[in-house]
UniProtKB/TrEMBL annotation:
Its main location: membrane. It is found in: Cell membrane; Membrane. Residues 1-21 form the signal peptide. The lineage of its organism: Bacteria, Pseudomonadati, Bacteroidota, Cytophagia, Cytophagales. Pfam families: MotA_ExbB. Belongs to the exbB/tolQ family. This is MotA/TolQ/ExbB proton channel family protein. One of its GO terms (biological process) is protein import. Keywords: Cell membrane, Membrane, Protein transport, Signal, Transmembrane, Transmembrane helix, Transport. GO terms for cellular component: plasma membrane.
């Protein structure tokens, strides 16, 4: 009899423990995936996502382009100087034409203008340099625009979230978690997304601008060196 009573007590205790564990598990909030969290932001997330794609494309494309433009063979200007000192203008011209670089295109333009006044040659080299710089800076300014627009879109999402909260409260006449949770999701998700995209575009804009400035500095020095070669000859 005593053994039966102890067994029933153990069963009841085990059932109670299982029920308590189940209740605790049910009380814990279920995890949410990143995609589901993004979708909580509503329609405003679509333009923010589109801006992020544009930002990544411009950053990657411009980075590759600028790196290729900066890849100038070692001793290029020394080779140009040696060929021009020897009077081999055709060789210098061919070397410049075969080198895929903004600097080489500037030098080639200057070589083609040899025979004209130095001022005209300098002007031609500067004009080519301006065109090459404009090509390098292509679309970088768009990153600056995105850096300003993305946080503003996030702020619009914040306003939409607040509107949703007040609409839910007005519709139900109740001020509770159920009424404000949806609007809070929209507020926080869109604000965070807009700020993140804006920071990425802002960093990309200044990073690429610094790369272009360094390349422009090299081009200017090489142009001055080329004009010095002409004056010496």
């Amino acid at each position: 009899m005593l053994a039966t009573l102890l067994l029933q007590t153990a069963v009841v205790t085990a059932d109670s423990t299982t029920a308590a564990a189940a209740a605790t598990a049910a009380a814990q909030p279920s995890s949410i995936s990143v995609i589901d969290l993004i979708l909580k932001g509503g329609w405003i997330m679509f333009p923010i996502f589109a801006l992020s794609l544009v930002s990544f494309y411009i950053i990657i494309e411009r980075y590759i382009t600028i790196r290729k433009a900066a890849a100038l063979p070692d001793g290029f200007m020394n080779q140009i100087r040696n060929l021009m000192v020897k009077g081999d203008l055709q060789g210098a011209k061919m070397l410049s034409a075969q080198t895929a670089s903004p600097l080489a295109r500037m030098i080639e333009k200057g070589i083609r203008r040899i025979g004209q006044p130095l001022k005209d040659i300098e002007t031609s080299v500067e004009n080519v340099g301006k065109v090459e710089i404009a090509r390098l800076e292509k679309n970088i300014s768009i990153l600056g625009i995105i850096a300003g627009i993305a946080p503003m879109l996030g702020f619009v999402g914040t306003i939409v979230g607040v509107i949703n909260i007040f609409y839910a409260i007005a519709s139900t006449g109740d001020f509770g978690i159920a009424q404000i949770s949806g609007g809070l999701y929209t507020k926080m998700v869109t604000s965070a997304a807009g700020l993140i995209v804006g920071m990425i575009a802002h960093i990309g804009y200044h990073w690429l601008s610094i790369m272009v400035e360094r390349l422009v500095f090299r081009m200017e020095n090489s142009a001055i060196e080329f004009m010095d070669i002409l004056q010496d000859n």
